[in-house]
Amino acid sequence: MTTRRAFLSGLLAASTTPNLTWADAGSPAYLAAAKLPNGSFALFGLSATGKDIFQIPLPGRGHAAAVHPERPEAVAFGRRPGRFALVIDCTTGLFTQRLDVPNERHFYGHGAFIHNGEILCTTENNIKTGEGVIGLWARSENYRRIGEFSSGGIGPHELKTMPDDKTVAIANGGIKTHPDTGREKLNLNTMRPNLSFLDDAGIIQSKIELTPELHQNSIRHLDVSMGGRVAFGMQWQGDPSETPDLVGLIEPDDKVRTFNSGLSQQSGLQNYIGSVALSYDGNTIGVTAPKGNRAHFYSRNTGFIHTIKRNDICGIATKNDSFITTDGTGGVFNVNDRNLTILAHTSRAWDNHLVKI
């Protein structure tokens, strides 16, 4: 097996033949999976105003997609636990590769590219041990699996590329699962979620853990600003009558803070954050709570700002100086200050995530 170091060195000799860009796929601004009225599934490319750019059928329910930073290419992941991911040419709508995890592994629904899109990192479960794994796939070798390393915890879900393009931030939710029991949570009493920052050699650069009383606050989703701030959202697995902080922010110096919206607003989140987006400047955090039918917004400096109510709202991403959201009833909305403006409405049901290109 080619070593990671040898593969990275080989990138210097890569061909300089011109390649297609996202403009050749219609210049979509976002990707999102959805369920159609006939029960089938598809991946959509959306414009900045929420209009359809393309629609590509999927063989099953999609969760999230990893977006190549330059080429019109995406890797669509099924809902966890999944055993495959599909590489899609977004100019033709064709599946160009199927990624099959090795035995005793399954995907957790997310991936991210590093090294200018040459390596795909995927969150996975080591079924035998229950430990989290980051799989490495070489794009220029038809997505051949070139290795893996520990995620730094259990139950890695979403991961994002840091601004240096070689480090990934990983939300290790702490929850152990096994395909034989579906999505059953097997270790709620002993779970220890964390955020791990790993470089391209699998070396942990830093690891952020919650205080012991919050060990049942599963860290599931995150976003990264251009300046290196990391916002994260959590899902409380403890006593449902409690309302712990569910949103956090990590500064580049690893300083961590969490946010609470006050008892009346906090309880409305139903202890479940479904997706996270961080503004370009890293000063505003948007999170969705589909179980509570609302989105909350926080200032890095002053805390909770306001809430927007919308049934089954979950997908969220940045849009210039505002945010864009999707929901399970087919809506696409712009959120600017306290205003929710409809951009599009369809009969499809948008899935959990809205991925910015």
Description of the molecule:
With 357 residues, the chain is mostly beta strands. Helix content is 3%, strand content 50%. It contains 2 helices and 28 strands. A 4-stranded antiparallel β-sheet has the order 3-2-1-28, with no helix packed on it. A 4-stranded antiparallel β-sheet has the order 4-5-6-7, with no helix packed on it. Strands 8-9-10-11 form a 4-stranded antiparallel β-sheet, with no helix packed on it. β16 (217-224) and β17 form a beta hairpin. The chain starts with a helix and ends with a strand. Mean pLDDT is 92; it is low at 1-17.
Task: Briefly characterize the structure.
The protein contains 2 helices and 28 strands.
Keywords for this entry:
single chain; 357 residues; four-stranded antiparallel sheet; globular; disordered N terminus
Proportion of residues in β-strands: over 45%
H/E order of the elements? HEEEEEEEEEEEEEEEEEEEHEEEEEEEEE
Please outline the major beta sheet.
4 strands, antiparallel
Strand ordering within the main sheet:
3-2-1-28
Structural class: mainly beta
Separation, N- and C-terminal Cα atoms: 32 Å
What overall geometry do the principal axes of the alpha carbons give?
globular
Number of strands: 28
Query: What is the radius of gyration computed over CA atoms, rounded to a whole number of angstroms?
Result: 19 Å
